[in-house]
Specification:
The chain is of the alpha+beta class. It contains eleven helices and five strands. The N and C termini lie far apart (49 Å). The structure holds FE2/S2 (inorganic) cluster.
């Protein structure tokens, strides 16, 4: 059985467990279906018989794969949502946009210098922004998209990276942009430049990389790679979890793989 089939079966079982409440009509790509009112758009689509091969990833609002646009009867607005996070509404007309063909610049990251001109060169369309703010209005993660564009035009990569940190690359901003900007790709470049070439380096991270290169974890990884799935599941299920409420000085009981081993 493929992982997609397994995933779909799991989804179907989850839906079966959740089905309560009355059925409501929704329209998926023009076809009418009756679905339980308690379901998310994603689960309602699966209930209606759709199987997700694309347009579904984390099911937790984090991967941006499940962008959905919809309208409601008697309402001229176009709404948007993440299908995995949004409950169905009666008579909604919806379709999914799992991919949006926005322009994506090709670059050699190693050759980039941390100056805004690099972004201007790769994405000159940045200056086509007409400040209509449609991008901000459609963002399902409430990122002030137009403000990020403005900061970039001013050359402030740091601010743009900070403000766009929650971007999940769903592409809805680009789908609504009058200036035809691929905002999410531009912001990703800004975050890459900021993260690798502007933000101060974390000393503990550099030390950890040296320890990894020196082979501290090789034996443990080798053991894991030679463990069968049943045993791996057992190890995973029995792992020590950090308590939900704990002080900053919490440490796991097994500290042999921590960098700083307490005596
Ligand atoms: S499936 Fe990942 S955000 Fe919805």
């Amino acid at each position: 059985m493929s992982s997609t089939e397994t995933k779909n079966e799991t989804a179907t079982e989850e839906i079966a467990a959740e089905i309560k409440g009355k059925l409501i009509p929704i329209y998926i790509m023009g076809h009418k279906y009756e679905v339980p009112e308690t379901l998310t758009i994603m689960k309602a689509m699966e209930y209606a018989g759709y199987k997700f091969i694309r347009g579904c990833g984390c099911r937790d609002g984090k991967c941006g794969a499940c962008s959905t646009v919809y309208r409601k009867p008697g309402d001229y607005h176009i709404y948007n949502a993440l299908a995995c996070q949004t409950q169905v509404e009666p008579e909604m007309y919806l379709t999914q946009i799992p991919f949006y063909p926005a322009n994506r610049a090709i670059y050699n990251y190693e050759e980039l210098t941390p100056v805004p001109e690099e972004i201007f060169k790769l994405y000159p369309e940045l200056f086509r922004c007409v400040a209509c703010n449609a991008c901000t209005k459609i963002c399902p993660k409430d990122i002030p998209v137009m403000d990020v564009v403005s900061y970039l035009k001013q050359g402030n990569i740091t601010k743009a990276a900070e403000l766009s940190f929650d971007c999940i690359q769903c592409g809805l901003c680009a789908s609504r942009c009058m200036g035809e900007l691929p905002q999410y790709h531009i912001f990703q470049l800004a975050r890459r430049i900021y993260g690798g070439k502007i933000a101060p380096k974390a000393k503990h991270l550099a030390e950890a990389v040296i320890v990894i290169k020196d082979g501290k974890y090789d034996e443990m990884l080798h053991e894991l790679m030679n463990t069968d799935e049943k045993e791996l599941r057992k190890i995973y299920e029995e792992r020590e979890l950090e308590p939900e409420i704990t002080g900053e000085d919490w440490r796991p009981k097994d500290r042999k793989f921590l960098l700083e081993v307490e005596s």
